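Dear colleague,

Following up on Tuesday's group meeting, I ran the structure prediction for the three-component complex that the binding team flagged. I've pasted the input sequences exactly as they went in, so you can double-check that nothing got truncated or mislabelled along the way. The structure tokens for the whole assembly follow below. Feel free to forward this to whoever is handling the docking comparison.

Inputs:
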Amino acid sequence: MIKTSQLQVQTRGNGQVVNITDPVAAIVADCGVRAGVITLFTVGSTAGLTTTEYEPGLANHDLKAAFERIAPEEGSYEHESTWHDDNGHSHVRASLLGPSLSVPFVEGCLTLGTWQQIVLVDFDTRARTRIVVCQIIGE
Amino acid sequence: MIKTSQLQVQTRGNGQVVNITDPVAAIVADCGVRAGVITLFTVGSTAGLTTTEYEPGLANHDLKAAFERIAPEEGSYEHESTWHDDNGHSHVRASLLGPSLSVPFVEGCLTLGTWQQIVLVDFDTRARTRIVVCQIIGE
Amino acid sequence: MIKTSQLQVQTRGNGQVVNITDPVAAIVADCGVRAGVITLFTVGSTAGLTTTEYEPGLANHDLKAAFERIAPEEGSYEHESTWHDDNGHSHVRASLLGPSLSVPFVEGCLTLGTWQQIVLVDFDTRARTRIVVCQIIGE
């Protein structure tokens, strides 16, 4: 059985880490499927998905610092000189983090750890409304 | 319903970013399955998969610069001293990017954004023929 | 058909790279499903999954060096000052590597390359017993 839905996620961009665990868990709990996998996919090329312990230190500071080492905001990007844009670092960070995440569930519950939340990281340089496709395959 | 196929992708290696969106979309369009997920998996340990806006600035310059920060080509690698090889950085980059990508599709279309393409990044130090396993699960 | 099991993996933490290919391959071989995908998901927010050529140079040195560039062990982390903890770098590294991996299998065999192994990387600062959820969807 396959059920596809989508989440709309409002973000402030600029590396904001948004905890989407509750709405994803609600989709799983309400789908009528006991066991399976939910595939999450963020539409667009300047955001990514992963898991983290969602607490202010990691979400607001430590993850950003790592991405700043990988692709500095004030660095020089061909993407920006070509398109007169300002989000070269956003694209690079999103490609590295990746757009998809697959989380198994059993007895209607995601198999997350206690301190492990599903997050969308929006690297774009402005506020965005993000679509996360949520597709359940199960039985 | 499960259908497994594979793509052969010719690359020049050395961090080449290859846009494989069209052949992946064709597999999805032709499979006779309306909704589901396509799991892509690159065989081998010196290439990875992700999505990006496929344009020359990002593909030919900006992504490479980030991977050069993470694992410099001219860095010192135990892999190279052990095996008298030259692709330590290729392995490290591929492990970080990851070999698998899961993309949902609905009504026969991948749920990609307009400026979001599926790419294989070949980090090896020579031209390669890559196999990407493409497995559809759907109904 | 969906079958969910789990692996227990003993680690020493501190970036240890553990080869879990054999137990994963055994789950696939024994499940009675010919073709499908195995979704692997590591429970907890200080470990991740990927593939690599599992040899001592990469596993014990080169991967660690790259993660040290991204999130230095001796760096300053808000997570640590908030929680009086010592594993800020572990969280950041785990989020970047990602907790999930999807590997197709055909005729009961994982579609891995010859020199491509499935690994769990435990970034925590102490020995851990890790749970990896292994969920097969196939026919």
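The two ends of chain C are 6 Å apart (CA to CA).

Cheers,
M.
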